[in-house]
Structures are given as C-alpha cells and as structure tokens.
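Researcher: I'd like a candidate sequence for this fold, 725 residues long. If you have to choose between options at a position, lean toward the conservative one.
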C-alpha cells in the first residue's frame, strides 16, 4: 500500500557541501607557517556591508574573499561563510565550528584554496575545509556504502570504532540495534522501491539496492526469531511499585499484573489517581503466597545478539538482560539467563531457563551461521548465540514499520520473505493480545518499558503518563500492520476496538501528547493556572526528543495504511500535537511525516516554510561525514543559550533555534540542544539513517525530486576521511 503526497515535489540538485580535514599544527607545519605569515587586512566598506547583523566589525579576526565572491569571516567563535548568491536564504550565512571543521573556534587566519574551499589556522590547528559538489542521492549512497563496509555487524546497524592498534574498524552493539537497523532499512527499502520503477537506473543499481535492503530486513527479522521462545511460562502476579514502571516483590490478588485498578472513567482526558487498587481488599499481604498465572512468551523480540567471540564481539554484560542458548540433556535448545552486573531485569529470577526450540528460518540463520569462529575455524552454531532482552516499545515501532514496507516492496518479488514476515507478525500480535498488551519476558513479566495498558498510560502519577500518546499509537501500529501482512481479521477487530471503543479510545488518547507535558509541569510547579505561552519554553526544555523520532515512525506507517476517514482525522489531530513543537525544529523526519499525514494539503513549519522544502533543505545540508563529534554551540553569536537550549535572539517571545544539520553535533533528535554529539572515536548509528530514511521515503512518496545524482567523492575517499578525521 502506498499513499503519496499529491502536490509538486521539492527539487534537489547537486550543491557545494563541506568536507573538513583537521590537523594539529605540528602535522602541517609548513601550511601553518604560511597562514601565520598572511598579511592582516582591514575590512573594507563592502565587506562591512556584507557582515551578518550578529557580527560586528570588531569581532572579525581575519577574512578573505574567494574568486566566487564568497566572504569567509574568522572570529573567536568560529568561521562564517557568506554567499548572497545561494539559492536558499538559509544557506547564505553558514557557520563552521569545532570539532566538526576545526580543532578549536579561535580563527587566526583564513585563505582560499582556489577551489571553493579555504585553509584555516586556529589557535591549535590547521584545517582544510573543502566545498565539494554533491547531490543528496550521491551523499545518501555514500552513507549506505559506509554502513555496508564498516558499520554493520552481521546485518545489524550498530556503531563502530576505529582501532589504531588493529588498524581496522570494530563494530559493536548499540543497545538499540533492532531499531537503528529498522530505520536504515526503511530508507533502503524505499530506495529499491524508487529505483526499480525508474528506467534511469541500471539493473545493477536496482539489484544492489534490493540486496542491501533485504539484508537489513533479514537482520531485523532475525532479532524477532532469535529468542525462539516456545509455549507459556509461569509468572507471579505483582503490583507496580508506586512512582515507577517496575514490578515490586509484593503481590496483588485477582491477576492484576501490569495493570492499575483506577476509576473506570474513560481513557481520554487526565486522570489523577494513586497507584494501586481502589479497594483495599485487593491488596495482598506482603508475605502472602502470590497467584501464579501462565503467560505466552512466543513472539518475544530481542534487542540485539552476539556470538561467543569476546575479542571481536564483546558483550556489554554491564548493560542489559542477556540469555545464552544451550542444548539441554535431551538435546533441546533452551535459553539460560546469563548473570550480569546490570540492574536491568532485577525482578527476574537469577536462574531462569526457557524453551527456545522454535525453528529459525534458514535464510535468517545464515546471518551468523555463515560466519566462522576465528578461534576454531568452525561456523557459528545456535548454541553460540547470546542475545539481549528487556526490549522496549520504542524499539518495537521500527520492527512494525519494516514489516509493512518490506512486505509491500520487497515482498512483491520475494514470497518467502512475505511468509516470514506474516509468521512473526501473527505470533507477535498474539503475544501482545494474550499478555494484556505488554511485551512479556521469559519470567512472564512485562519488560521495563513495554507496557501498553490503558491504566498505565492514564495515571498521572505513573512514569508511563507522558509516554501514553506514543505507546498507544505503537500498539495500534502493531495490530494495523499485523492485519495488513497476515490478512487475519482478528487483528483488524483488535485494532478498531483499541482505537475507537470504550474503555480504550486509544486514537483519542494519542492526541494528548503536548498537553501531558504541560500537565506534568503544572503539577511539578504546583500551579494549575499557568497558561500555554508561559509553559512553552518549559516544554521545550523537558520534552523527550527521542520519543519524537519514534512517533514519526508510527505516524508514517499510519499515513500509508489507514483509509478510514474517522481514524485518519483522529491520527491527524495526534500528529498536530507533536507538530506544536516539531514545527520549530526543522526536523528532517517530521517535516516528511507531517506532510504525508496531509497529502492533499500544503503544510508549513513555524516560520512559514513548506514542510517539503524544510525536508529538502536539511537533506541538502546533511553532513557528508558520519563520524560522531561533539559541537558546542552555546557561544554562537547568532543565538542565545538558556538552560542548555538555543533560542533566537531578540524575539519578543522565546522561539527555540534549530541549526542546519551540518552545524549540529548530533544528527538525531536534539533539535534545540546547545551541546550535541559526543567525544569518542566512533561512527554512530545516527550518522546514516537520519539521512537515508527520510530522503528515500521522500523520493518514494513524492515529496522530493532529485534533478541530478552526481558527486565527486568516492566511497574509498570517504572511508579514508572517516579513518583519519
């Protein structure tokens, strides 16, 4: 199924994009001396007129004008490029800062390189900032190539570190391997969907796109099969510890695990109730024998997995819940919990064994079985697998999106893949339906962040309260996709019940996202009279921006699958709630998704810019390098910083400031954070999928049109840049 944007797409063409090489002075002594010897120049009247309003002549430490009449300005707060001929007004003044482009922000000298770029001398280093002509398609394909070469780990999009000692890239677990892999797969699946229907692409290009998309998809599906849990497990019925999302060691009568017995007044609107049962008779004695129930564990999805290779595939036992597959005395495959130092899963029994005999499709097993143990020379077997659990619902939303896209696009020519997707979707939907809408672990208990019960999401004192509008949509996404890929009417009935019927009405609850943040702030400040204008900057500072990414994925799925006008209207109101803040973020994904929620109506951001144009602009400004970096924008002269956030200067009302993608330390969700990214020696998962996914979906659904697809950077050159950066 495919629901396209019906307006005119935004056009993309090749443009100059920054590529920086940074050196210590001692590495470029001759060039450093040459730059230090440059004569100091005074600003002329023409240059003064071209200065941005936030840079005074006295702030200019150095400058140059290249042969294209581009003005480069060096200051103590970075380097600025001024080019009034840039087609997009947002590109006419660009900022270059440490650590992306220079070793520090104190610019001492700047000189044109004769080819659109500049050499820069700073307090501690020398930088060569090239401006290379690249199309967005070429850049996206470069990111895909780096993922294939150096980032992926057995088909999963993990992070990777450069090891100087071993002279190689070393991929590692990223905790949310399933989610990141699903996100990049969404983009590459749509790349294949674009290419196979466009005669300008060669058969070789189409086949390569299909293989890449299929491998990502298989890796995601393997995580859905890798636990292979079979049957039901015994579980104790317990209540939630007040103020937390975790089960305590006390117990409730009447089987109320994963639920809060609060007044049944309907799901929409705010409910304020204490955690725990209304009727005191429902409390069990602390030392009472708990009720035992049996819960279905089939369909459980793992976070990630490893092979038993501590040198090349180390397992972070300090961070998570892990199980190892072994053969029991009868030769049956089981999973045994591995002791760890993590406090995650601390409510699980220390010694826990679960039947893991469900069969894994051979084409998925090959992702690890085709690899060889370097210590023994033998292929990895099923009993070499250690996998990570405690999977959350934000992890699951990527899986559901993949089922829909892979089934519709890849599955057209791959019936086996369709069958695999339908099998796991059916099994996983039953898992949630049988377990009171909770992702249930091997101990029969909900995982820490995968309860999707109405009671959990309605209670204002519960940690799930702010998550409710997202969590309810994820559950709806599950059953909508399950019905789409299986054809089982049970899941359509489940979907419509949860979306529309009392006492659920999840489609209405989904519209409360922004208001719930306002509500929690009022409660924290003990002031119910605060108005929205006063609350707005507080919401900006407290919002969970990771959730915005998850929400974009859910709403994309719904934009493609939902045809019911009643539900569409409700989901659009839900998207509107997220857009109240996202419209300021110039977010590459929400600009895409929000427009697709309204395919017949042009949508605009907070500054009057069409969503499709924001999508195109941020895609064009997406960094060429996927290296993890730290950028501190707190002292940028074109913005003001407050409580770690960037705001526009000199505005009557506070307006959050989101800079271009290549001026951020992180390309993920921290739209307004003054400090972004991190100090390390890795290529992170955010570096690629945040371009690949929205760009190719934008092409696939008709929001973007690429006028040219060329570029003058090869994959080999980019890998060398990443290695030496």
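Model: Candidate sequence:
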């Amino acid at each position: 199924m495919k629901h396209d944007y019906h307006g005119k797409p935004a056009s993309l063409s090749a443009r100059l994009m920054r590529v920086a090489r940074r050196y210590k002075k001692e590495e470029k002594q001759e060039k450093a001396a040459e730059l230090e010897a440059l004569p100091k120049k005074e600003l002329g009247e023409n240059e003064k007129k071209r200065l941005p309003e936030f840079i005074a002549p006295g702030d200019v430490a150095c400058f140059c004008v290249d042969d294209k009449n581009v003005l480069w300005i060096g200051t103590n707060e970075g380097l600025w490029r001024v080019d009034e001929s840039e087609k997009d007004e947002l590109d006419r003044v660009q900022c270059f800062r440490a650590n992306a482009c220079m070793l520090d922000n104190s610019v001492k000298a700047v000189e044109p390189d004769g080819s659109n770029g500049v050499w820069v001398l700073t307090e501690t280093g020398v930088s060569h900032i090239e401006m290379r002509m690249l199309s967005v398609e070429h850049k996206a394909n470069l990111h895909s190539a780096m993922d294939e070469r150096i980032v992926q780990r057995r088909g999963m999009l993990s992070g990777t570190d450069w090891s100087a000692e071993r002279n190689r890239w070393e991929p590692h677990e990223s905790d949310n391997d399933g989610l990141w892999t699903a996100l990049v797969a969404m983009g590459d699946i749509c790349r294949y969907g674009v290419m196979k229907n466009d005669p300008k692409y060669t058969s070789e290009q189409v086949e390569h796109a299909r293989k890449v998309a299929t491998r990502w998809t298989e890796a995601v599906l393997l995580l859905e099969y890798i636990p292979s849990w079979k049957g039901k497990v015994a579980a104790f019925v317990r209540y939630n510890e007040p103020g937390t999302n975790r089960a305590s060691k006390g117990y409730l009568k009447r089987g109320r695990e994963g639920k809060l017995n609060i007044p049944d007044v309907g799901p929409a609107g705010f409910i304020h109730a204490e955690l725990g049962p209304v009727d005191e008779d429902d409390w069990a004695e602390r030392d009472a024998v708990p009720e035992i129930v049996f819960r279905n564990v089939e369909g459980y999805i793992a976070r990630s997995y490893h092979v038993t290779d501590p040198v090349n595939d180390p397992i972070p036992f300090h961070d998570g819940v892990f199980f190892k597959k072994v053969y029991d005395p009868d030769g049956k495959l089981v999973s045994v919990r591995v002791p760890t130092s993590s406090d995650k899963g601390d409510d699980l029994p220390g010694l826990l064994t679960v039947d893991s005999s469900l069969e894994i499709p051979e084409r998925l097993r090959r992702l690890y079985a085709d690899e060889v143990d370097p210590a023994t020379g033998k292929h990895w077997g099923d009993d070499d697998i250690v996998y990570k659990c405690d999977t959350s619902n934000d992890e699951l939303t990527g899986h559901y999106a993949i089922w829909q896209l892979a089934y519709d696009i890849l599955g057209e020519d791959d019936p086996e893949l369709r069958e695999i997707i339908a099998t796991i979707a059916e099994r996983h939907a039953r898992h949630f339906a049988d377990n009171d809408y909770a992702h249930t672990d091997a101990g029969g208990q909900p995982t820490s962040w995968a309860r999707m019960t109405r009671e959990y999401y309605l209670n204002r004192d519960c940690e799930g309260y702010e998550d409710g509008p997202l969590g309810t949509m994820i559950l709806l996404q599950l059953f909508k996709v399950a019905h789409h890929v299986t054809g089982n009417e049970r899941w359509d009935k489940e979907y419509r019940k949860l979306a529309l019927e009392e006492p659920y009405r999840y489609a209405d609850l989904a519209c409360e996202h922004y208001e719930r943040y306002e509500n929690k702030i009022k409660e924290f400040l003990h002031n119910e009279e605060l108005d929205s204008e006063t609350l707005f900057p507080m919401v900006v500072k407290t919002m969970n921006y990771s959730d915005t990414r998850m929400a974009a994925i859910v709403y994309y799925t719904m934009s493609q699958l939902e045809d019911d006008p009643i539900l569409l209207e409700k989901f659009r109101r839900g998207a509107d709630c997220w857009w109240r803040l996202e419209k300021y973020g110039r977010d590459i994904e929400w600009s895409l998704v929000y427009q697709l929620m309204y395919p017949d109506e042009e949508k605009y951001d907070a500054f009057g810019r069409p969503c499709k144009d924001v999508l195109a602009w941020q895609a064009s400004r997406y960094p060429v390098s996927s290296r993890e970096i730290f950028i501190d924008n707190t002292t940028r002269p074109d913005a003001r910083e407050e409580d770690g956030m960037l705001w526009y200067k000199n505005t009557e009302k506070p307006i959050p400031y989101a800079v271009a993608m290549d001026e951020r330390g992180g390309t993920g969700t921290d739209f307004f954070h003054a400090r972004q990214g991190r100090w390390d020696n890795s290529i992170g998962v955010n570096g690629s999928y945040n371009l690949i996914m929205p760009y190719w979906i934008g092409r696939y659904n008709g929001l973007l049109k690429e006028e040219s697809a060329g570029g003058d950077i090869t994959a080999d050159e980019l890998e060398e840049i990443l290695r030496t950066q």
